[in-house]
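so my prof wants the structure for this chain in the tokens format not the other one, which i didnt know existed until like an hour ago. anyway here's the sequence
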Amino acid sequence: MAILTHIFAAFMAERKIDLLAATSIVVANMIGTGVFVSLGYQLFGTTAGFPILAIWLVGGLLAFLGALSYAELATRLPEDGGEYYFLSKIYHPALGFMAGFVSSTVGFAAPIAAAALALGAYLKGVFPGINETLVAGVIILAIAIIHMTNLKAGVSFQKVFTIIKVAIIVIFIAIGCMQGNVQNISFSPEAFYFKEIINPAFAVSLVWVSFAYSGWNASAYIAGEIKNPGKNISRSILGGAALVTILYVLINSVFMMSTPASELVGKKEVGLVASNYIFGNNGGKIMGAIISILLISTISSMILAGPRVLQSMFSKIRGLQYFSERDSNGNPTRAILFQTILSLILMLTVNFDSLINYIAFTLSLFTILTVSGIIVLRFRHGKPQGYRAFGYPVTPVIFILTTLAVAIYFMKSHTPESLLGLGTALLGGLLYFISTDKKKIKENDQ
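here's what i got, hopefully its the right format
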């Protein structure tokens, strides 16, 4: 064990993840299942252009406001673990443990399952004869093996696929814009559309958009492995969030300008449907296949980041410490295997729509607590020496109140998924309190 500790210390000192890799992890976590499926469900509430773009702009603004606070927290507390580490240090190890449990199950394993299912749906639209569930499972296993084998290979894989993903989306947007507003849809803020914005459906749609933007805090989970964390953590979080917001607004504009709303409503594979209108049937199939490949980057980024949380948690739970061991290169191989198995189970047992609602609601609870943590730290220790959140305290307060209001409304409209999310968090708390290594958790996290 002492040898493993020495190897891991050397690995951490080297900090192998540079700014480009960290930013690519943020971008890859954000650009995934959500942007390619959310519009179809938003159109149940409204088919008007302005409210849809307003939802994406509000979602992007909230993500950026949250990113400002996370950037300060991650710079101030630059260790692996994300919410698990932040909440343990700021509040209490029990709350941190609950957040870590939610992050590892809802924050990573469930989105991996959702992204794989979406990937399978896209491929089935291109190749009707395939078994989409089987394809999704094979993809998860293949990417997990890459990350289990070698961290450097996994990071390089992540960089390449993220660059390809952004490039393809930019090409998609450019070609769509060149065709013009075929559907003659208006994005102007007319009075009628403001009525739709205050409609309760707007809040539900915002939950879907929040899921699409989730991942803006991804580099916080691997903060202990990022080079020059004092600068690169904040740059990766803020730069990634800003870039993705611009891309989201543009690509959803293209979806609506190119494709009749009636063809998109309720569709999981909106990118494939829009591609058929923009590129024709054959070109659409090619683009649908490309989009499905882009989802590989999302799955990869979560398989890279998630096990770092699991590894840290498992090291403090008797009976699960086996999964906390790292290999000779400092790679949390066993935690990757554990997360992969959990992802496969969720993929096979949970309905896609319920899975998305469950993810979006549950993650919002601990995001609110984490952003609140910046206020607690400022109150206790004053301003940090390094990066400081822009607009403090206004920016974190706006994020907290808005996200809380949406979560409360969502609890009323989607009670089963909300209760399941709360139950998951409570299960994490139960595991903490029955752990015989609870004393060790307190000693290490305080």
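also thought this was worth mentioning. The radius of gyration is 21 Å.
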